[in-house]
Design a protein that fits this description.
alpha+beta, 3-stranded antiparallel β-sheet, globular, binds zinc ion, 79 residues
Length: 79
């Protein structure tokens, strides 16, 4: 099911999928796997893919920028 959301081209589906993912994980206190958590914007709650985000590798780690809201997410160390 998660793979279906992550490969969707529709912005409405990716937005709803991100919101649902975060809401369910908080309600049921389930930890979202790291590879999926890294692909959800924490600000606008959209699924990040190559169309609406850019990923750069810097000295201090991986920087993922959301192109819709402008928020940057930094992942470093053990990710
Ligand atoms: Zn965003």
């Amino acid at each position: 099911m998660a793979r279906l959301w992550l490969t969707s081209d529709s912005p409405e589906i990716s937005s709803n999928a991100g919101k649902t993912l975060i809401r369910l994980s908080r309600r049921h206190r389930i930890k979202v796997p790291t590879e999926i958590r890294m692909r959800v914007c924490r600000s606008c709650k959209k699924i990040l893919d190559s169309n609406n985000s850019k990923t750069r590798i810097r000295l201090k780690g991986i920087v993922v920028s959301c192109m819709d809201c402008g928020r940057t997410h930094r992942y470093h160390g053990g990710v």
